[in-house]
Amino acid sequence: MKMIVAIVQDKDSNRLSSALVKANFRATKLASTGGFLRAGNTTFMIGVNDDQVSTVLNVIRNNCKVRDQLVTPVTPLSGTTDSYMPLPVEVQVGGATVFVMPVDRFEQF
Ligand code: 2BA
Q: Tell me: domain 2-72+86-102, CATH 3.30.70.120, correct?
């Protein structure tokens, strides 16, 4: 068995949830925050048999889009008068960041 941990953009989370339910996969959604952008994203935990991993990865791939997002770098704190206006930088986010991990044991009581 494997645990698939997928970090996706909030904009894709409802569509991905529906697609997983439709394909008969069970998932848990966690509200999470990206360390770099400090913006909300959604983390899915999906427990599946080994032979289902590629199907789940396809569902994720088909429902999560790559998007460009603007980030404004933090202005340096300085007492000097030669301060500058930081220009926004564009970063590419997603479609999804996925980890596939082995599960030692699975129990439901
Ligand atoms: P964030 O950490 O908010 O990162 C958002 C996007 O900013 C990243 O998109 C990447 O394009 C860029 N980025 C992140 N760190 C950077 C850095 N040090 N320098 C330059 N650009 C940087 P994605 O790679 O698609 O990641 C989307 C989200 O997935 C991340 O949000 C984070 O929540 C998660 N993530 C990505 N890689 C991870 C990892 N190795 N471990 C845990 N979570 C990860």
A: yes
DSSP 52: G
First-to-final CA distance of the chain = 18
What atom of ligand 1 comes closest to residue 92's alpha carbon?
A: 11
* Full pLDDT tens readout for the chain, 109 residues: 999 999 999 999 999 999 999 999 999 999 999 999 999 999 999 999 999 999 999 999 999 999 998 888 766 555 555 666 778 889 999 899 999 999 999 999 9
CA–centroid distance, 49 to ligand 1, in Å, is 28
Cα separations in angstroms, 1 against 21, 47, 50, 90, 91: 19, 7, 5, 38, 34
0.85 surpassed by pTM: yes
